[in-house]
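Risk register update: the risk of archive-format incompatibility is retired. Evidence:
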Amino acid sequence: MRVPCPLPHAGCPSFERKGSVQRSRVSLRSLLVCCLGFACLSLFLSAVEVGATGWFFRFLPLQRLEHARLHALKQQQARATGGGGGDRGTQAASSLRSPGPASLTGFFRRFVLAFQRSASRAQVVLAWRHRSEAAGRPEGEAEERRGASEPRERAPRATEKPEAGETETLRFEEGWFEQPLDHGNPLVFNRPSHEAWKQKFFSAKRERRGAAPNCYSSAAKNAEKNGGKSGKNIQSEDEKEGSAGRKRQMRENFSAGNEKETEKENCHREPIRPIFVYIGGEGPLSSTDVREGLIAEMGDVFGADLYALEHRYYGASHPRPDSTVANLQWLTSHQALGDLAAFVAYVKRDAAESHAEDLSPADIPVIVFGCSYPGSLAAYARSKYPASILGAIASSAPVQASAAFTAFDATVGRVLPAACRDRVKAATAVVQRRVFAGDAEAAETAAKFGCGADVPMKTHDQRVALLYVIADAVAESVQYNRYPKRPWIEKVCSCFPEDADSEPETGAAVSREGEEEEKENARRGDEAAAEEARAARRDDRLVDGLAKAVQLMLGELKLTCKDSNMLQLTDTRLGPQASSSARLWMWQSCAEYGFWQVAFKNSVRSPLIDLKWHMRMCNALFPLPAGSEFSTDVVSETNVWTGDKTLAGVGAATNIHFTNGEYDPWAPLSVTEVPPRAAVRQGLSSFIVQNGSHCNDFYAYEEGTEPLPVMEAKARIQHAIRLWLEEFRASRQQLREKKAKAETSHLSSSAAPAESEL
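Archived output:
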């Protein structure tokens, strides 16, 4: 029989039970308070438009509903246009979002005064008060896609107040712009006289059908009717005939005033269109670059005129006849930025002169777009030419030059599945051992990869070049992996057998011979020889799988071993062929950026691909004048004049939006995070696309295939552009008002009579 405790203490059972009950009650109360708080927060978020940022943004039910709403609207507009709406319907829905002042940060600041924190990323405003408007939006505003040879038409945007029956047409053109050879380059060592050359560009300009008359047509008609005088200054004969004449004159003046007001309204109905410029990179351009993709979608949202400028030396834009070393000295990003600045000045001037109003080039906003290396150019252009370029969209932009770029291979190894990565490493080690075993075995191994004629196997560097072709093909599968169209990682990994002891798809006869040899060695008791035969069969299966993967990727990229083999890039002819672009980009790597993807400890690629091998490749392909050779110093010099991440990202630059894929090997050289202070004060923003790779946000996706993270990335880009344009228009309006006020005060002061000294 248990005796009750006379006094409660820690050892008393009743006291212990009572304490556990109290703790349970406290836990239940805390849980209830948390649930009530979350319910209140959810009610607030459903009633107020919220700019959600950071990790919390991904877990809001509101965001999931917003994505579902956008997707439903996208399908509705696609059906309205016969299935061709594409992801532009999503952008039309996103255009309903307004950059209102309400934000999640403001909510916390309102109730907790001590909490002061700025958003670390560009806010994506979820305007739920427009849900009914979005659901009832006219279907006629959907984009109508036509063939490549036909102009596209769409109904004008509601904000432009079009006339009845008015439509808008996109007119695609191809043109040539004359550029100077040299914009000023410190690398030029034999500067000739300035020569001009023509650079190729593509444009998509918006033209109205059934538009309002010219801004000055009514005024000119009145002046012609009244003999060159304005209607307000005309004195009719009836004015001298008494009250009837005065009433008639008042009616005429009122009519003339109304006509002027109507003319002013018609004048302002023609919008000042922004200009979006797509920057070409290390390859030829085509009209597709302004017909589809991110820039075309953003152009439809904001009613912008589109341009795509081909990079010098690439495609058909040839400032020099060939790519010899003497002519390659003008192929630098410094010269490319000079080309871009001159072209932007030209399109701004052309837009101002062709506009109905009396505009100056400063009234035309220009935003540049680029992904990968062109994305770096876009960021540099905004930081160096802020007076002429309003903002930059830089996707997968390696703004920091790097000599030993080990982070590239580290990302490849992290993204590949572990089993696949181990097989690639093991197969690469086998290939490396075989290519250095002898000339015959090296040639046989190269032929297995389909590179027999393209990759000679005579010197040490030539054999390392084959290892580079292999590493580059595997890295491309990670860099350009994109679901659902390009599941290249899965395809590459499927080339290897799941079980190392399974039979390969090819070479079965060799395997049977190996098995017979193994059985014979086992009968003789030679276990070492039997194990060696088993290892040889495993190596054969690994090499066969790697060769299959490399040939698969070369076929997907429409390349050959010669295009990836650095030592074979000796053809100096310029043109659209891949080998020409590869040689040109190799020059830019050697002369400016580096970007040399070298191996490190436990790397996927061969350890023989090191920095010294890359430098030997540069000096072998591009022999400089006597006494000169390439070195890693060029990388430091590039980072000095470009400013790398400091200037292009979080330093003096403004109005740049960076987008990077989570699995992009180039992301370590880009701007992946922006401090809150820079985001607020400088208009900088960045976004990471979940499960994204290289330039995912710049592609055109088929209906229903665009991933939600890409949709979110495009929504953030759209939000950033809208903020830039609104700030630009507000500043120009303030400048015009200030100028008009100064002119008015000057006229009033000059017209006022002088005050008498008496």
